[in-house]
Amino acid sequence: MERVLNIVHNLKGDKTIWFIVAMLGLCSILSVYSAIGSMAYTTRDGNTEYFLLQQMLFITLGLGFMYMAYKFNYMFYSKLAPILLVITIPLLIFTIGFGVEINSARRWLTIPFIDKTFQTSDLARLALIVYIARTVSLKQDVIKDFKSAFLPIIIPIVMVCLLIAPADLSTAVLLFTTCVLMMIIGRVSLKYIGIMIAIGMVGMILLMAIGSVFPDVVRVETWVSRINEFLYNSEGGWQIQQAKIAIANGEWFGLGPGGSMQRDYLPYPYADFIYAIICEEYGLIGAITIVVLYLGLLHRCTVIVTKCSKTFGAVLAIGLCLNIVIQAFANLAVSVHLVPVTGLTLPIISMGGTSVVFTCISFGIILSVSRYVEEYSTYEIMQEEAQVAAEESKDTKKKPKKKLKYENYY
Known about the structure:
The protein is mainly α. It has helices spanning 2-9, 15-35, 37-43, 48-71, 76-98, 120-138, 146-164, 169-185, 190-213, 220-232, 238-250, 274-307, 311-335, 354-396, 406-409; strands spanning 100-102, 105-111, 116-119.
């Protein structure tokens, strides 16, 4: 216990982000334990403790991976990016052909020996964001050039997103949007970004054409039904109606932990619609708290970007942050019927395995960048103090202190 307290005491990086991660993990455990009731009765004879312990295990595992990612110098991920991308693309192709089919979608591969599924798009998102951050930073001198900068960026984006889209369109759109924003932040020409968006739209048309012939490969019918339901059904489908009832039941202060009634009627209350359960049990106060946590993450990452002196670190941190925050608000928007049903979970809070772990790894990388910013700021202060001491030594004819070297400091 003492060792754990020492680790917590010595944590560097943005303390607000550490706090946000801790709060999201706590919200996850409380919310999943409450929302899992119906699933526990159908699969584990009412043993809700099994899913509580499972979620606690994944949260703990995710925090462990987050700590490891935080301890690495973030420049390590620049070297790792091409390797991750090379691994990711074959995995996505293999998933389309031989993945585990759940709810008419092939998004998962079975992990040998432990009998757990692994969603390859989670790895793909992380790999692509790191790769785009690396490429944008390396191409800054020629960032306006089509052949030298734009093509090396666009080809992986289009390839990965089109491989994810057949089984999981919402994740593909989320990732594509994140990459576009990263390119804007990285000073890529807007006309080239417009070309990429046009290519993405052409790719979607091709996917829809393929889906009309091979509906088992591309889920076009699901896409169309969700969009039609959103556009032509003002009350929403069964899921949205139950989510609205849950939110309305919560009023200001909610029904209290474990007091949700709609968890027995709402499909996937522990995943896609966990925000509705939070609203029902913790009321408007709980709903606003969740929003503030994700907005706080966006704010702190923006601060990191403005202070980071390296392009790769700045683009990497904001890319990972945007991917988490956009997904979070997409999930919230579904619950209140602002967008069509997407199937996106609430990062860290929703029940999950590899999704929780990879989200925590993203937090760890962001914290690694913030640690660099913090230590570089300390280094600059030390440099200023050394310079003042050197100037004073000229007046007193003392030998000046040796100049600090940042590469030795960090």
